[in-house]
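Fold it.
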Amino acid sequence: MLKRIVTGATLFGLLAVVTPAEAQGNYRQYGGENQLRVRVGNFEPDGESEYWDDTFFDFTGSTESFEDAVVGLDYIHRIGSRVSVMASGSGYEGESRQAYRDFVDAQGRDIRHSTFLDVASGTLGLLFHLAGADAVLQPYIGGGGGFYSWTLEESGDFIDFAADSTIFSDSFIGEGTAFGTYFVAGLNVPIGDTISVFAEGRWDSADDELEDDFTGLGNIDLAGRQIAAGLSWRF
């Protein structure tokens, strides 16, 4: 997980650096034209790809079993009264304990392994504010794109069907980075001159070809839905 967080933080830093400072214009919102936000929420993969189809055909579980926490950091810079640039970084780690659906060991026990999926993202996009900066409730929508770095690991007991269905223990790991897009919609509520609370829904769309120990097994869908809330500091 630490590697995913470091990757996401690095991408976030690079994106923040390239935010166009010259696009400030003449607009200045009450409390400052910049925001730094911390958000915590819940992410569930869509699971619409060859890897997910094959996994849930052979093993127990579903995409719901990979539902887990996501943590993110956003830097927002106003470039107009209703438009902002947003650079974001986030990290997610899901885990599911799975067993073969149709096979057990000689003692009739499940043959189990654990599957881990880590995804760290760094994105850049635009936010469109649907109400003025002095509104009590401030809805917004937006979207953009960026890079999604992932690690997939399966660790535990497996069946070697090519060797008389021998049960063996092993770990399989694959990594990669893919370009993806996102859409976000949310509501910001100021609670002071510089502090706000917010809640939002975000839909990420990305997929990548499986590599390393999973080479030849098709692609993996990294898309999913997240619901998050957090604090925002304007400066």
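Confidence is low (pLDDT under 50) at residues 1-30.
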